Structures are given as structure tokens and as C-alpha cells.
Automatic annotation (TrEMBL):
InterPro entries: Gal_mutarotase_sf_dom, GH38_C, Glyco_hydro/deAcase_b/a-brl, Glyco_hydro_38_C, Glyco_hydro_38_cen, Glyco_hydro_38_cen_sf, Glyco_hydro_38_N, Glyco_hydro_38_N_sf. Keywords: Glycosidase, Hydrolase, Metal-binding. PANTHER family: ALPHA-MANNOSIDASE 2C1. This is Alpha-mannosidase. It comes from the Archaea. GO terms for molecular function: alpha-mannosidase activity; carbohydrate binding; metal ion binding. It comes from Promethearchaeum syntrophicum.
Length: 968
């Protein structure tokens, strides 16, 4: 299997080629005439086998090092690997005058800064950190990437991806006075089309990856192209193979690098019809070269035979760090004498490449979906759950902190700042592309679970402590931490009452005794027959099978219409209240299989990466699910709960469906005691809506995918990513599926499935990790063999997903209000039914499609004197506003009491005029100025349209806008 081969290859390089005891042998071999002539012979043989000549290209050699922050080793191991990487880089710089290496991930630089005094330096005159800083200044160590770590891009939310860039780029700026201009993510498992905007607005001028060459259905068609984001941001992108595999497949580059016949040719996965990956030359699962390019022939009408001759040869052993071997460097140096290969940095290469490519470029207007590693959206379910909870609480605790700082100027506590910074670093590190996707060894997740728990507990405590001044014992309180309306379930008399439409950022008093006396005008209703349970409220009817527990039908109650709208199956004649209870309807409902749990066996024989990949033929191996019982757990006027209990193989499964009298949402909670290896579990919902389109939330927007593919690229997306929701709508009705911590889904002409959990083998690590945290007895062989709890919901609605404000619903579903019992408020004001609102500072946005993404203290500090020294560090001054400085050490940051950062995004894909209001702040609060800033919080321009307590602006479809707000 390829995963094992990768492990063996890494161990081979680790134990043999990188071993210092063997270095003299390698040096002797390299200096021999035999090696020199052998390189020349090898290059000619390679050219003949792959039908090219090195003379066909202008090749530029760029040394790089790709280090996984965790994979077959732990994060603690990676600290030492980072040291080895920098140490070898410094040694190579000393040995080879032409050598300059491109390195990513500020996290690794910070490790070297932190442990520098404990680490031996190859430079006798400088510490390890001093030597690194010196070589960065000399241009021998090039700063690339710009993200704090090389993160997964499918699973983190949009704000987390911004913080990756913010923390990473500002670290570079603080320590070295410059940022990375080329984002490089060579090993990430897919690229949403919202990332170009994030990259460009945080300093990226170009993007490079190699991962899409791993596609298993189609050949990626272009090497050099403009990647157009969801908001129309354009980013110059280079995509080709890495290391020696690039030389083995130069025939493919000739086809991928062809010049377009016309400018602004736009392609996407729906317009590119073929692109089939034809049988490549492969060894042990590794695709070495392609000889059949017929899948790209459909582009002949659009592309010339002439191709871009500039080719970057990025080389250096991957995954385990350390960078190029002496052997690799000498090999490319000897090759350069025969073929005029030039040694260069990544930035210089892109400048040359852009110049040769010119203005006429192909545009890719779509996500860059990786046709591989689809299982990483689901593997390690507990890590995904911890990530979502940590994100939600961290973002919104930060908003609360900022509201406090604005309202009470002297409330800044350095300990709070350090707590938030610590939590952010924990979150960002654990979003690394082999940690969060679930493709690391068991030892890695001991640390991840601990750090997620720390974030979650710390933020809950912070929120409680922050509200303490408003809360006095004696009363019950509700706090909405979100910038959108929210809801909460209040326990009353062994049942629950749901309170809806709780205003953004509001703090409210509630008296449960008054709720007990509420007159419920539209109570939940339950009707039963021998075979089905009919449950309804004022919004929908949910019908369950008494024998199998499946959701037999889900009917939307049309406003002002007598007929019900079935969302799962079609009915003729139309269903109404009068004929819903007749025998024919009962029989029809009972015949439906309904929305149900589906379980499959994954057979991993021949599957090279089981932790990464879902078996393509999993649907051919279903596992029978036995229904043990179906029970009514709660049945009151306000709440109805149905529970179905199942078993399969050695595992058990419970599904709870909850209906509230005043909620349009059908809540679904599943509990799985998973004890069986190599299974895949999905919850399938049939769909009776006349559309081929499924809308999936992505970071800062939504993307359209298809249920019935018409191209090979579309067909390859048989498992796809989502954030908090997916939605299927026709012109009149729709059904959204909200989730709290799931990221994978699939769809076909029959319906939609949410992927819940899978239990593949862990990656094989041999004897690779030096940190031993588990004994052989306690070390699991397969992932996810634990108890799981998942929450998701069905939300039927009228009209489109935009009409129903589904992004807002998904946000509220993920973080309901906080409920504090037995506390008494201060500053009581107006009354709304059984809830009394407390005067509390908050922000409101006039348009529902514009969502607040961040409210935070600025990273830059306001200063009267631009040359002010903070501690012993001379700050870095912003170019467009000299009053703002950035300390060389983030630990010296302090609240300036003058400004904050506010970020919003447009969620529906339409241009909007919007107004933001600041409500119930202290009487001293007045806006002084509003500036547009980029994602690194650097000034772009000023906004003129503002008043003391509000400002207005226009926002483009799916645009992210960030403001720096100065106030008196």
C-alpha cells in the first residue's frame, strides 16, 4: 500500500540517507566521475521513456522542505524535526554558495526562537535563532506560505483560516520585517473557492500546490492559471508535481502548460467534460508518469500547441522535513551543467513565470476539489467535534471580550490577552492538514483532545466570569453570544420550552415560573396507528415508522394553503389535513423506506490510504441494521421526542427526533456505541424537490454542487465537504440540513446523506514516533471505536436558501444561548412577554445576509509617537497610517483603548447596502474614524459615511470586509 511505501521511504531516508555516519560515503560517491556521468545518462534515459528532452524547458530549481507538524510522529517529535530542518538548511547554505531554501509555517520558526538557547547551532558565532534571522536577512532562507501552519482548508471555518494567515504573516513581519508573498500548500486535501480572497487580502501574490496531481478520476488540465474565487478575487496559481516525480512526468507539463488561444477563457468542473486520468506509469501505487493525454484533448480548440517553457523544479524530501539531501542538491547541480538549470527562490521563480505566461491566461472559476482523501472529512469524529466547539466558543468569547473593552476602557487584563492568544495557537496548530483530517497516529490525538478541551473550558469560564457583574443570585438569565437572533430550550417540569428570536448579543432575565403558566396555542400533536406515528406542530408534520423508526415522510405546512408539501416523497393526490389520516395515506407512508441510517463495510484491500480514503465501492457492501424498539420519550404540549434503538454487528445505535411546538426545526440526536472496525455510517434523507442542485455552505459563502453529474469532475465529487449546512430548494420550497460538527456529505438523484462516522485503520507508523504515549496493549488499531453523539436537524422552508436565511440558521444552531440559573440582573429595562432584557452593549447589522465574522482588538497598536519603544523592541510601523505600530514581540501587546477590528461577510451572493449600529454602549462611545483594512489589519482607505454610533457601506457578493474603528 502506498501509505506503507511512504513510511518505508521516509524511514529509508531517515536511517540511511540522512544519517551523518553515511555522509562521507555519499560525498565520496558524488565527487566520483561515475556519479557525474551517471546523472547525464539518467537524464537521457528519462527523456526517452517520457518523450521529452530537458532542453524543451527552462528549468528553475527551488529547494524546499515540507514538514508535517504531526503524522507518523507527534507534535513534540516535530519540534525536533523542525530543528533538524533548520540545521540542515544552515549547513547547506554554508556548503553550497548557490543554495537558498524556501520554508513555510511560522509555527516552526517560533519553535526555533523559543528553544534556540537549548539547541546547538551549526554557526559558531551565532545562536540557532540568530543564524536563522541572519540567513533570512541575506535571502538564503526564504519566507513562504504565510499561514501559521499548513492547515486543512475544508474543515476549519472561514475566520479560522483568516487567523492562520493573520498570525502567520504578522509573525513574519514582527521578526523579519516582511511577509510571505507566495502561499504554498503542497499537501493539503482540497481547496475551497473562497480561499483566493483570503490569500490575496492577506498578502499573497501567487499560490502554488502540487496536491491536485493526486486526482483519481481526472487529470488536472492547467499548470498555470488564474484561480477565481467565489467573490471574483483572482489569484495567479501554479500547479504541478513535486520533487523527482516532476522530472518523471514532464510530458504532462507540456500539455498542462499550453497557452490559451484567447484571453479570459473560463472553465469549471461543470464545463470541463472529460479529463479522464488515463492509466499512468505507476510503481506501488505511486503515479510516476502519464503517457496518454487524450483526456485533455477536448481543450485543443482552446489551447495552442505552444506551451510555457518556464518550469519550477521544487525539490526536497517531503513530510518528514529536513529539506533536500546533499545527494539531491549535487544531483541538480550536476544536471544544471548539462541543461542550464538555474538555482532560484520561490518568489523569483514566480516573477519569471508570470512574465513568461503574460496577460493571456485561463481562468478556473471553481473550487479545486481533490479527487482523493474524501474520508478525511469524517475520520476522527471527536477531533472534528472538538474543533467546531472550540471555534464557536473562541470566536464569540472574543466578541464578548471586545465589547467589554470598548464599553469599559480600563477593563484590560493582560492575562486575558495571553489566554486568548494561547487558545488561538492551540486551535491553529490542531488544524494542521494531517491532524484535523484524522490521518495521524493515535498518540497525536492525545494532545489534540487535551488542547481542544482547554479551549472549550477556558472560553466557557470566560463567558460566565465576564457576565458576572450583570448577574446576581436569585434569578435566571439567558445570554445570546451570537450576532444573529438565537433560541434556547429551557427545562420546565421535566420537559422543555423553546424560546426563539432572542436578539443578538442580548442578556435577558427569565422567570421559569411564568413559563409554566404559558397558554400554548399550537401544541405539539401526536397521532398513532399500528404502523406509524404522526407528529406535528404549526410548521411541519413528521411521520415515523413504528417498526423501523425511519422518518417515513416530512411535510411542510404551507402558509395560507390547505395542502401539505411532502419533502421526502411525492404523493398523488396532494396531502391535506383531511386526507392525511386516511388508510391510503397510512399505507403509503408505511411503504416508504424513509430517511434512515445506512451502514456499510469498507473493504480496504488495495486502498493505499484507509484513514484518508473512503472505498469507492462502499455502497456494494451494506450492513443490516436491526431495529430493537421505537419509543415515545417525551410527550407534552411543548415537546415531543421519539427514540429509535438499533443494533448492528457488535455495535448499538440510538436516534432521537425532537419536535418543539414553536420551532420549525426537527432536531435529530444520534448516539452510537461503535465497536466494529472498517464501517462507514451515513444518515440518508430522500428528497422530493424538483432540482438537480445542492447548495453547501463553505467558508464565507455557499457553493453549488450537482446531484446528477454530467462531467467526470462532477462525478468525482461523490463525497463533498460542507460547513454548517446543506440545502436543496426548488422555486417554492426547500429543505436544509443543519449540523453541529459533521463535514462530509453525498448526494444523488434519490436524496442526500450526511456522513457521520467511519472506523478505518490508523496510519502505519512502524517504529517512527520517538514519543511513546501508549503501550502496545492500549494502542488502538482503528479510529473512532468509541461512543459518539451527533446533532443535526431538518429545517423545511419556503423559497430558496437565501429567502430562508439558512446561513443565519446554521450559525444559531451551532451555538445556542447560554442559560444561567438562579441569578439576579441589574439595570432592568423593558419587558418582552416572559423575558426581560438587560441593558447590554451590542452590535446590530441592518441586513440578514451580512454576517459578523469577527469583533476583536486590533493586532496593531495606536501610538502618538511612531518611534515609541515598547519594552526593548522597536515596533514596526504601518505604511498607510503611521499612528499604528506592531511590536516585535506579540507578548508586549497591550490594549490601546482607541480602536477595534470588525469583520463582516456577505453570505447570499448579492450586492448589498448595509448599516452597522452600536447599541447600548456607554455615553462616552463615539466613532472617530472608520478605515477599510486588509486581513492583516493594514489600512487600505478611509470610509466617510459614518455617524457617532453607526456607519454604512456597500458590500459585493460573498465579499469579506474588515474595518478598523477608532473611537473616543
Amino acid at each position: 500500500m502506498r501509505e506503507i511505501n511512504d513510511g518505508i521511504e521516509t524511514i529509508f531516508l531517515e536511517k540511511l540517507l540522512y544519517n551523518p555516519r553515511n555522509q562521507k560515503l555519499w560525498d565520496k560517491l558524488i565527487k566520483s566521475p561515475l556519479f557525474n556521468s551517471g546523472v547525464n545518462v539518467f537524464s537521457k534515459i528519462l527523456g526517452k521513456l517520457s518523450h521529452f528532452s530537458f532542453h524543451d524547458f527552462n528549468i528553475y530549481a527551488i529547494p524546499v522542505s515540507h514538514l508535517d507538524a504531526a503524522w507518523l510522529w507527534t507534535v513534540k517529535d516535530s519540534v525536533f524535526r523542525a530543528y533538524k530542518t533548520f540545521k540542515m538548511a544552515l549547513e547547506h547554505i554554508e556548503k553550497y554558495p548557490f543554495f537558498a531554501i524556501s520554508l513555510t509555517s511560522p509555527q516552526y520558526f517560533e519553535w526555533m526562537e523559543k528553544y534556540s538557547k537549548k539547541l546547538p547551532s551549526p554557526d559558531p558565532d551565532r545562536t540557532m535563532w540568530e543564524a536563522i534571522c541572519y540567513q533570512v536577512d541575506q535571502g538564503k532562507i526564504e519566507l513562504c506560505g504565510g499561514s501559521w501552519i499548513e492547515p486543512d482548508l475544508n474543515i476549519p471555518c472561514g475566520e479560522a483560516l483568516i487567523r492562520q494567515r493573520l498570525y502567520g504573516q504578522l509573525y513574519y513581519l514582527r521578526k523579519f520585517g516582511k511577509i510571505a508573498k507566495i502561499e504554498t500548500l503542497l499537501d493539503v486535501f482540497g481547496f475551497p473557492n473562497t480561499t483566493p480572497q483570503i490569500f490575496v487580502k492577506s498578502g499573497a501574490e501567487a499560490f502554488w500546490t502540487t496536491k491536485i496531481t493526486w486526482n483519481d478520476y481526472t487529470m488536472w488540465p492547467f499548470a498555470n492559471f488564474i484561480w477565481q474565487g467565489l467573490d471574483s478575487t483572482r489569484l495567479f496559481t501554479h500547479q504541478f508535481r513535486f520533487n523527482i516525480e516532476a522530472f518523471l512526468d514532464l510530458g504532462r507539463y507540456k500539455v498542462m502548460a499550453r497557452r490559451p488561444k484567447n484571453n479570459n477563457l473560463i472553465f469549471n468542473s461543470k464545463s470541463f467534460q472529460d479529463g479522464e486520468e488515463m492509466s499512468p506509469i505507476a510503481i506501488s501505487g505511486s503515479k510516476l508518469a502519464t503517457k496518454n493525454y487524450s483526456g485533455l484533448y477536448e481543450l485543443d480548440d482552446y489551447l495552442d500547441k505552444e506551451y510555457v517553457r518556464t518550469l519550477g523544479y521544487f525539490y526536497g524530501n517531503g513530510d518528514g522535513g529536513k529539506g533536500p539531501l546533499n545527494l539531491e542538491i549535487d544531483f541538480i547541480n550536476i544536471l544544471s551543467k548539462y541543461y542550464n538549470i538555474k538555482h532560484i527562490t520561490t518568489l523569483d521563480f514566480f516573477n519569471i513565470l508570470k512574465k513568461e505566461v503574460g496577460e493571456k491566461m485561463v481562468i478556473w472559476d471553481d473550487e479545486m476539489y481533490l479527487e482523493n482523501h474524501r474520508g478525511t472529512l469524517t475520520t476522527q469524529a471527536q477531533v472534528k467535534k472538538g474543533n467546531r466547539k472550540a471555534e464557536n466558543l473562541l470566536f464569540h468569547a472574543e466578541m464578548l471580550w471586545t465589547l467589554q473593552l470598548i464599553n469599559i476602557r480600563d477593563s484590560f487584563n493582560p492575562k486575558t490577552y495571553h489566554l486568548f492568544r494561547k487558545c488561538w495557537k492551540y486551535l491553529l496548530l490542531n488544524q494542521f492538514h494531517d491532524i484535523l483530517p484524522g490521518s495521524s497516529i493515535p498518540e497525536v490525538y492525545i494532545r489534540t483532545w487535551r488542547e481542544h478541551k482547554f479551549i472549550i473550558q477556558s472560553m466557557k469560564e470566560f463567558i460566565s466570569n465576564s457576565l458576572e457583574s450583570y448577574l446576581i443570585s436569585g434569578k435566571n438569565m439567558i445570554y445570546n453570544p451570537l450576532p444573529v437572533s438565537n433560541s434556547i430550550n429551557i427545562p420546565v417540569n421535566s420537559t422543555y420550552i423553546q424560546l426563539n428570536d432572542i436578539p443578538p448579543f442580548s442578556l435577558q432575565e427569565i422567570d421559569p415560573e411564568n413559563l409554566k403558566e404559558l397558554n400554548i396555542e399550537n401544541p405539539v400533536q401526536l397521532k398513532q396507528s399500528n404502523n406509524i406515528l404522526i407528529c406535528s406542530n404549526q410548521y411541519f408534520v413528521a411521520i415515523f415508522g413504528r417498526n423501523d423508526g425511519n422518518l417515513k415522510e416530512f411535510l411542510w405546512k404551507n402558509d395560507f394553503e390547505s395542502n401539505y408539501r411532502p419533502l421526502l416523497y411525492s404523493f398523488d393526490p396532494p396531502l391535506s389535513h383531511s386526507n392525511l389520516m386516511n388508510v391510503e395515506a397510512f399505507n403509503a407512508f408505511n411503504r416508504n423506506k424513509g430517511g434512515r441510517i445506512k451502514i456499510y463495510r469498507e473493504e480496504f484491500k488495495g486502498n493505499p490510504y484507509p484513514a484518508w480514503n473512503i472505498c469507492k465501492n462502499y455502497t456494494q457492501h451494506p450492513i443490516k441494521l436491526m431495529c430493537e424498539k421505537v419509543e415515545i420519550i417525551k410527550n407534552s404540549q411543548t415537546c415531543l421526542e421519539i427514540q429509535a434503538t438499533y443494533s448492528f454487528l457488535n455495535s448499538s445505535y440510538e436516534v432521537n427526533y425532537t419536535i418543539f411546538h414553536n420551532s420549525p426545526i426537527l432536531d435529530i440526536h444520534t448516539h452510537i456505541d461503535l465497536r466494529d472496525k472498517e464501517v462507514l455510517i451515513k444518515h440518508f434523507f430522500p428528497i422530493n424537490l424538483d432540482t438537480n442542485e445542492i447548495i453547501c455552505e463553505t467558508q464565507f459563502g455557499a457553493v453549488s454542487r450537482t446531484r446528477i453529474p454530467t462531467t467526470k469532475m462532477e462525478a468525482a465529487k461523490w463525497e463533498f465537504s460542507m460547513q454548517k449546512w446543506v440545502d436543496i430548494s426548488d422555486k417554492n420550497h426547500g429543505l436544509a440540513i443543519l449540523n453541529k460538527d459533521r463535514y462530509g456529505a453525498s448526494a444523488n438523484r434519490k436524496g442526500v446523506s450526511i456522513t457521520l462516522v467511519r472506523s478505518p485503520p490508523y496510519p502505519s507508523d512502524f517504529f517512527y514516533s520517538h514519543e511513546k504515549l501508549l503501550s502496545k496493549k492500549d494502542r488502538p488499531s482503528h479510529t473512532d471505536l468509541v461512543k459518539h453523539d451527533f446533532s443535526y436537524a431538518l429545517y423545511p422552508h419556503k423559497g430558496s436558501w437565501e429567502d430562508a436565511n439558512i446561513p443565519e440558521k446554521g450559525l444559531a444552531y451551532n451555538l445556542p444561548c447560554f442559560y444561567f440559573q438562579s441569578i439576579e440582573p441589574k439595570n432592568r429595562t423593558e419587558s418582552i412577554d416572559e423575558v426581560k432584557i438587560i441593558k447590554f452593549p451590542n452590535i446590530s447589522i441592518s441586513e440578514p445576509n451580512v454576517i459578523l465574522s469577527a469583533l476583536k482588538p486590533g493586532e496593531w497598536m495606536w501610538s502618538k509617537n511612531k518611534d515609541e519603544k515598547i519594552g526593548t523592541n522597536l515596533p514596526f510601523t504601518e505604511s498607510k497610517n503611521k499612528q499604528f505600530i506592531l511590536t516585535k514581540n506579540a507578548e508586549h501587546w497591550k490594549w490601546d483603548g482607541k480602536h477595534f477590528i470588525l469583520r463582516v461577510y456577505e453570505a447570499h451572493g448579492r450586492k448589498t447596502s448595509v448599516r452597522i449600529n452600536f447599541n447600548d454602549f456607554s455615553s462616552k462611545f463615539n466613532l472617530k474614524s472608520v478605515e477599510f483594512v486588509d486581513l492583516l489589519e493594514r489600512k487600505e482607505k478611509e470610509l466617510d459615511n459614518f455617524e457617532p454610533n453607526h456607519f454604512s457601506f456597500d458590500i459585493a457578493p460573498f465579499e469579506i470586509l474588515t474595518f478598523r474603528i477608532l473611537f473616543d
